[in-house]
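Consider the tokenized backbone below.
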């Protein structure tokens, strides 16, 4: 509940009109094993959000939070959870390293729930040791750098709904951390402006929040990604965009495998 309060507070500070205002969190006096989180009540419609509204709201969060990480690094100052699954948010200076520690932690939890599997063990090792460096490391090499922005990280349709009172979406139940959204901005520092090429001026801010759109369970799909990219351009190297999106989507496949441990289809997926 502390993580929920801190995550929602961080989002509310950036886009207050789209996030219910957090009020308090705590523990029941009469039951030390029962905890609560309170926020303003917002009436919503239980509808799938239109793609352009989804993209408008999420891009506002990403653009409004760029450059505001309290440490200048990736991660979050408290533990947060995807449902009841803890996420490793330990601060890290490297985006690739932060993503690796998050996905490795989820893979470990998946194995504790289901037990070891030789084929999956081999595939997980290849994913961590080969795939992640191949598709995330270029974002932080050849003069490129990733600037942290605030990531909601659980934007399935149950957590983003049309408001009843006005024509905009409400987002909530964040598992927030400072991470990477898709886009490139020309922003040379004064110290290197005179010497660097246009290639070294790119500050990449890529698309961890777009990974969930790729998972068929969540019914968001390509339209949400396309609408988002109308507002925020693709990071360099642009040819890696679809593969980066697939790398980020793996987080939600692992999560569903952990949460729905009785349904082996999710792990097979």
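A designed sequence for it:
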């Amino acid at each position: 509940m502390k993580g929920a309060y801190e995550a929602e507070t961080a989002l509310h500070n950036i886009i207050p009109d789209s996030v219910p205002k957090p009020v308090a969190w705590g523990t029941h006096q009469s039951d030390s094993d029962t905890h609560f989180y309170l926020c303003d009540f917002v009436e919503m419609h239980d509808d799938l959000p239109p793609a352009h509204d989804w993209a408008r709201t999420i891009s506002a969060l990403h653009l409004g939070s760029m450059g505001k990480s309290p440490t200048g690094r990736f991660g979050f100052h408290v533990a947060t959870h995807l449902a009841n699954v803890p996420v490793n948010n330990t601060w890290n200076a490297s985006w690739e390293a932060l993503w690796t520690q998050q996905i490795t932690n989820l893979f470990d939890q998946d194995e504790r729930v289901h037990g070891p599997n030789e084929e999956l063990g081999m595939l997980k090792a290849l994913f961590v040791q080969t795939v992640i460096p191949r598709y995330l490391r270029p974002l932080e090499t050849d003069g490129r750098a990733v600037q942290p922005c605030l990531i909601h990280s659980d934007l399935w349709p149950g957590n983003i709904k049309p408001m009843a009172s006005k024509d905009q979406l409400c987002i909530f139940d964040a598992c927030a951390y400072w991470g990477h959204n898709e886009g490139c901005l020309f922003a040379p520092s004064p110290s290197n402006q005179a010497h660097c090429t246009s290639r070294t001026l790119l500050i990449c801010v890529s698309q961890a929040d777009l990974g969930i759109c790729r998972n068929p369970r969540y019914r968001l799909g390509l339209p949400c990604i396309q609408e988002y990219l109308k507002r925020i351009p693709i990071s360099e190297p642009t040819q890696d965009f679809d593969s980066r999106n697939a790398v980020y989507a793996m987080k939600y496949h692992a999560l569903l495998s952990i949460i729905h441990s009785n349904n082996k289809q999710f792990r097979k997926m």
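The first strand starts at residue 22 and ends at 28.
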